[in-house]
Amino acid sequence: MDWDDLRIFLAVARTESLSSAGRRLTMDASTVGRRIARLEAAVGAALFLKTPQGYALTAEGARLVAPAEAAEQAAAAAAEGVRRDAGLTGQLRIGAPDGCANYLLPQVARDLCDAHPGLEIQIVALPRVVNLTKREADMAIAVSPPDTGRLVVQRLTDYHLHLAAHRDYLYRHPPVKGLDDLRGHRIISYIPDMIFDRELDYLSATGLETAQISSNSVAVQMQAVRAGAGLGIVHDFAIPFAPGVTRILTDQISLRRSFWMIRHADDRASRRLTLLAEALAAGIRAEVARLEAQLTDPGDGPT
Q1: Which of 163, 162, 155, 160 is nearest to 187 (CA)?
Q2: What DSSP string describes 163-225?
Q3: Rounded mean pLDDT of 74-89?
Q4: CA distance 23 to 2
Q5: How far apart are CA 298 and CA 58, in angstroms?
Q6: What is the mean pLDDT of the chain?
Q7: I want to staple 12 with a disulfide (CB 3.0 to 4.6 A). Which of 21, 24, 95, 294 is the partner?
Q8: Is residue 157 classed as helix, strand or coil in its secondary structure?
Q9: Residue range 247-270, pLDDT digits in tens
């Protein structure tokens, strides 16, 4: 049985699609289909059942997953042994919520690539939890620890959020001196039915019920605040990227959340991934601290 065919089999099993597997493997869907057919001929059984939702594993296919993953780990260990003396190289795919992906990971990726020129970093910003079981990423950053799965979870750092607005908005609208004043202002927040983690339900934490402008993206919300569209709960670490945005009611609305690093349990044996995880964790902690430290006045952001 060809290991390369098993590699393609795992990609289809994880993505449930020939085209998605092809994109992940940088080959066309027809080639993926031919290789799956070749593997099915070799094992003498159908491994997938084509459904309207995609390619679902048959019972025979499900039994092949564990041996294929064992072969995958062995191949990764062999490759790691060959390049051990060459430093940290190769591809690292990081899944993260878009607040972290937009405002923290670009700087952290820059520093990692400066330190390890042979490293290629891919940042996957998704408005949902990244599925490590399906190998959507090598490791993921999340805003709450998962409850299930063969995963290794590490708390990275706390971060802070406050109500904020652009100075132009505050100049044009009635003053905000207390929580009661918020009712007369336009609010920017998440689309309620697209909140994928309870830690992102900021309106509930502030006593507000509805938002007039909403998005499933932290970056879009921040851009709306920066455009003077209204008031929004924003990450302190994002404010240095938005000149003119200032925090308000900091003594009445102040949220603290945490970032968590999640890895697949099988990856603990990989020295390379462990070193990369340690470097990534240190980078995120340092970047949150650096950016939040720029907000020296508790009631005012940078200009």
Answers
A1: 163
A2: EEEEHHHHHHS----SGGGGGGS-EEE--GGG--SGGG-HHHHHT----SEE-S-HHHHHHHH
A3: 59
A4: 21
A5: 58
A6: 86
A7: 21
A8: strand
A9: 999 999 999 999 999 998 878 778
Residues 154 and 157: their CA atoms lie apart, in Å, by: 10
DSSP H helices, the chain, are 3-15, 18-25, 29-43, 59-83, 98-103, 105-115, 167-172, 202-206, 218-226, 271-293
CA distances from 173 to 100, 214, 231, 242 (A): 31, 20, 11, 20
Q: 16: phi > 0 → left, psi -120 to 50 → alpha, else beta; which? A: left
The single-letter DSSP state of residue 232 is E
Q: How far apart are CA 197 and CA 118, in angstroms?
A: 35
Cβ-contact 275, 138 below 8 angstroms: no
- In 3D space, the residue among 214, 217, 15, 241 whose CA is nearest the CA of residue 97 turns out to be 217
| Separation CA 54–CA 29 (nearest Å) | 13
Is residue 71 within 8 Å of 3, Cβ to Cβ?
Answer: yes
Amino acid at 148: T
Backbone angles phi, psi at 260, to 5 degrees: -125, 140
Q: Which of 81, 99, 102, 98 is nearest to 90 (CA)?
A: 81
Encoding tokens for residue 63? 């039994």
Alpha carbons 160 and 87: distance in angstroms, whole number: 35
User: pLDDT tens across 87-104, in order?
Assistant: 688 889 999 999 999 999
User: Which pTM does this prediction carry?
Assistant: 0.71
